Amino acid sequence: MDVRLRTVIATATSAAAAAAVGSLASQPVISSSWYVRLRKPAYQPPRIVFPLVWSALYADIALISAATIDELHYRQRSVDLPSYRRALALNLVLNAGWSWFFFNRHALGASAAAAAALTASSADLARRSIAVGGAGAAPLALYPMWCAFASVLSTHIWLLNRRRKPQRG
Asked: Within a domain: residue 121?
């Protein structure tokens, strides 16, 4: 099934918006004294890994979601199409929201919970896409895997720092 350019533009714009909103929360904080002072587990990847992985995942989300939406449209599955679109929208809101909990509000417990919700949402999105697109949508399974890792990492950072008083700056 061919993917329509209009659909790719819509899903790419949505994924880019989520990335931009999340980035607004994280950019000024990455080198802040608050973030530098946080205790982090030894398995935390180097800083450069995050934008590389997330760029690939956002592209994956946009392309596979566009293919899924177009395939649902082509098959005339009118019940599944709005449901998929809602699942994608919720996922992107959760995606952007994590950065605001963690970087902007310094709410480590809430960010761990948000990461877990994002993991569940991304697993649901991948499941829906694979059910429609089969093996062609399988790369989207990397998204919940990364989110699960991020959930473990967020939770570990919260546990390492939960007795510390939050500080701004």
From this structure: yes
Query: Do residues 18 and 26 make contact, with C-beta atoms less than 8 angstroms apart?
Result: no
- In Å, how far from its chain's centre is CA 111? 12
Instruction: Measure the CA–CA gap between 18 and 33, rounded to whole angstroms.
Output: 26
Tokens standing for residue 126: 């991948």
Structure tokens at 47: 């800083």
Q: Does residue 115 belong to any structural domain of this protein? A: yes
Total domains, the chain: 1
Whether residue 104 is predicted with pLDDT greater than 80 in this model: the reply is yes
pTM assigned to the model: 0.91
Q: What are the φ/ψ torsions at residue 128 (nearest 5 degrees)?
A: -65, -45
DSSP class per residue in 64-106:
HHHHHHHHHHHTT-TTHHHHHHHHHHHHHHHHHHHHIIIIIT-
What type of residue sits at position 13? T
